[in-house]
Amino acid sequence: MSEPKAPTPAPGDTYKGWLFKWTNYIKGYQRRWFVLSNGLLSYYRTQAEMGHTCRGTINLATANIAVEDSCNFVISNGGTQTYHLKASSEVERQRWITALELAKAKAFRMQAESDDSGDDSTSPGGGQGSGSRNSEVQSTLRTLGSKVEDLSTCNDLIAKHGSALQRSLSELEGVRLGGETSEKIRQVTERATLFRITSNAMINACRDFLALAQAHSKRWQKALQAEREQRVRLEETLEQLAKQHNHLERAFRGATVLPSSKSNPAIDSKGPVPVKGDVSDEDEENEFFDACEDVQEFITVPADPKYHRRSGSNVSGISSELGMDDGTTSLDEQSLGSNPESPQSREVVPVRKRRSRIPDKPNYSLNLWSIMKNCIGKELSKIPMPVNFNEPLSMLQRLSEDLEYYELLDRGAKCQSSLEQMCYVAAFTVSSYSTTVHRTGKPFNPLLGETFELDRGQESGYRSLCEQVSHHPPAAAHHAISERGWTLRQEIALASKFRGKYLSIMPLGSIHCIFEKSNNHYTWKKVTTTVHNIIVGKLWIDQSGEIDVVNHRTGDRCHLKFAPYSYFSRDVARKVTGVVTDKDGKAHYVLSGTWDEKMECSRVMQSSRGGENGTDGRQKTVYQTLKAKELWRKTPLPEGAENMYYFSTLALTLNEPEEGVAPTDSRRRPDQRLMEQGRWEEANAEKQRLEEKQRTVRREREREANHNGSPAEEVKEPADKAETLHGSHPPAYSSGHQDNYKPMWFERQVDPMTGEPTHIYRGGYWEAKEQGNWDSCPDIF
């Protein structure tokens, strides 16, 4: 089990092995891998963790080592750190105590020497770099000196015991013994003397080496400093040459393309077309984009200046060069001209004033461990959670928050190019996660048959409807349609697991976006959401994974990559990168940004394979791009959002009471309303009542189905898709089958585009609302 060790640890050597460390009263002693090196005692869960994850370290220079019994001992540094350790045997414990005492003495000696020489570690006129290099050399010399002192200690011991041996042998010589015995004693004496002479010679040689190293230390420092300065000069020279080359290349192209006169280039072009920028803008357009190290599989660099140096009369020429339709507006013009909030784009009509605040979140204490200890390994939807962990919104309302930045789809609907439209759809996909960065509260699980409508036709031009179509497994269907030419629909089922330290939420199902004008049909799936520090520490949320947005009509594709957060990464946190390609795999746009702040896109002018390999051994693609244009930026949270569950402006209005909504609407849910008002104890009681009522209704429905022999809801499938459903594309989950429930406003079909079974809006809700006819709605509250 434990690593083989020497019987007595040599002074200064690294010492490793298994020990049992006390953790807590529940787990008791746990086996850990300990490493003693350079006066520090560190431990890991396994030997494999030594390269990346240290669980704890204690400095022996100021530590106290105490022995409790035959196998137990304690290491403490004065109160902040205390390790209660247990060895497998008394011999093993003694080996560790010996090694720790030697390491403690050595660490104390080195600390004292470091304090004495602290003022001399850097020169008065030197910079931080030279002081660091001098300190490194001095540290090396101190290490060598320490080794020599260790050898000197060993020599003293050898001399002491050797002298005692010689005295004993001398006494034996005076005893009258046989000739053969006297001869052997004489040989032993000679060998002991030779051994002592050899040890002294070894110590002297080490002392000479240390003196020589000290004598040449200054020369080493000067040589090292000269080499580093020369390298810096070479790097600066290379950078200067690259800038000069780029300047000469731009000057050459400018001399051959632009007229020699100093007149405005727009005057020489045909027609009074305004110029987007003059020559002075060249430096701004040639901004250099740093290569990404961890996440991206590509590198972006500024495109050739010939692509920037265009007058207004050549805009259509650029479009034709890129293989786009004539008359296509550029992406930056599109983002300005199609802003639905501009006064020219829509008439000013009186709209309802929505609320901007909700009651502040009360500060109630809760024993988290008493709830969580019985939940490990269970499905999240089957865990009876109090409202203390919730936020006063249902999952249906959270799903409707995907429309927070609906303007991106409005702009995409006006695009004439499917590739530009793909950029807006991809930005919309990323924007749906921006509301989750601080939202650590769990939304209410919707009751079966619960609905939520979001009618923003007057303000924003769209209507949205969600319905809980299945309870086991939980699944919600969503349908939104806009008068500005797009439709969004999705069915999302959540697979979630509590792993003790974190909670993983894996959304299942596809999202569809259809644009009426172009008939472009886009689909994508959601990434994994992870909630960290469930038991101890501050909760925080991360999004990670990859998304493929596919245009099924044209074959265009956008591959988005959400980088998982890492403490050791030098990259931007919550980073998202992506590339928009056509059906032939040719890249047209590069996307970059973060899922909690903004997204930008850059048009690709040229691509090539890079000379350096990526982290996975493959060559990175180098894209020459124009200057990045901002597609989306997160709207700041309202004032005081930290006291209102970090709700956005839209989220604050979702649970606002409205007249005329269906009796199954989430706004009418009593436990959710009580929680919003701060009456949490009443909300918990009401929540238990609703859940028990739902269980009773489900048992009755199952009993009735078994009595009548009626099958569960059947899947309507086209004749050409029947084989697909039962063949190569099995459903990811059997929505509706376990509940024997037929939704009110959605029906289960085989999606004609993806071949997956899903719930699609059947119609009739908004007509029922206009008529005020809710007689067919179930009583779920």
Automatic annotation (TrEMBL):
Protein location: Membrane
Q: Name one GO biological process term.
A: lipid transport
Asked if the Swiss-Prot or TrEMBL record annotates the protein with the keyword Phosphoprotein, the reply is: yes
In this entry, which stretches build a coiled coil? 217-251
Enumerate the InterPro entries for this protein.
Answer: OSBP_sf, Oxysterol-bd, Oxysterol-bd_CS, PH-like_dom_sf, PH_domain
Q: Where is composition skewed (Basic and acidic residues) in this entry?
A: 665-706, 713-726
- The family this protein is said to belong to: Belongs to the OSBP family.
Q: What is this protein called?
A: Oxysterol-binding protein
Give the originating organism. Answer: Carassius auratus
